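User: I'm designing a mutation panel for Cytochrome P450 and want to avoid disrupting the core. Could you give me a predicted structure to guide residue selection? Please restate the sequence first so the numbering is unambiguous.

Assistant: Good idea. Sequence first, for numbering, then the predicted structure tokens:
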Amino acid sequence: MRACHVATLFLTKLGFQKGEWLYTASRSRLRRFPYSCAARFFGFLAVVNGEDGHARRKNDGTILWWLIGGVVVRWRLFFPTRRNLNSWRLDKKMKRSLVKLIDRRKENACGNEITKGAKDLLGLMIGASVTVDDMVEECKTFFFAGKHTTSNLLTWSTILLAMHPKWQVEAREEVAMVCGARGIPTKDDIVKLKTLTMIVNESLRLYPPTIATIRRAKADVELGNLKIPCGTELLIPILAVHHDQATWGSDANEFNPGRFSNGVSRAARHPFAFIPFGLGARTCVGQNLALLQTKLTLAIMLSRFSFKLALTYRHAPTVLMLLYPQYGAPIIFQPIATTATTVDC
């Protein structure tokens, strides 16, 4: 299973192995797994590992701001500000790299590359004769938007497990029971990890990677006493909906994965109160991949480590397009039955 291989490789490179070790990483280290996983899934690892890969990784926050920021205030993208000029330059550079990769993959298609194993997103789009411009835009959306949201979900889930050792123990016992001695879940195991799924859902509820989304009315519509004209754009405050006590109860601001024990639709007083990935036909297309990456990584981490917050941790969620821990997430990892190690996620 490709995702499982990437997750294991990621943890190994960080030093996450059984036995005594001492390793200190910056918070950006935890972001590398979604980055590498996305590159392998979508078929443009060469773009990430190329000569400009480091520069792109360093500036991908700027690109993300340009991709997502314009959704909220479109007009600001057209002014030649310093940030916009930098975004335009990076966007052109990225497009050139992606077009080169697509052309190279098309040439290799003559040698049956697509039919023999290039089953990543890029290979499938080439096989379906998708236009080059559309392929470039799809890759940008999946890669840069998906990478940040997934890394945030992984970060907050790790923080919450470190804060609540009881749930961490329950999740670890479940992973051991489902996965056995190997400690590495298969795709069939993932659906059996009910406790871990509840924890990830509660993390998404408390700290949704995207705090709001926008929808445009396709026709005149009435919402209660409000009349919404066709073409009106509505901002849906996901974070506020997820913390509404009238919907979630008096413990809406508390970590309680048990609320999802009967499924997502029964977790709140309204069946559609849980919307971390949106809802309906416009649900985030990368939802399943983000959940798969997160659950795989957490399952492997739980099977190898116990962990808790470092004394330097300061809880300060902050919004910078997405929801981040402002001062990082220093976590103390302790390999099972071995000595303790500090890692800043």
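For picking mutation sites, this is relevant: Residues 264 and 308 are 28 Å apart (CA to CA). The beta strands are 213-216, 221-223, 226-228, 233-236, 305-309, 317-320, 322-325, 330-335, 341-344.
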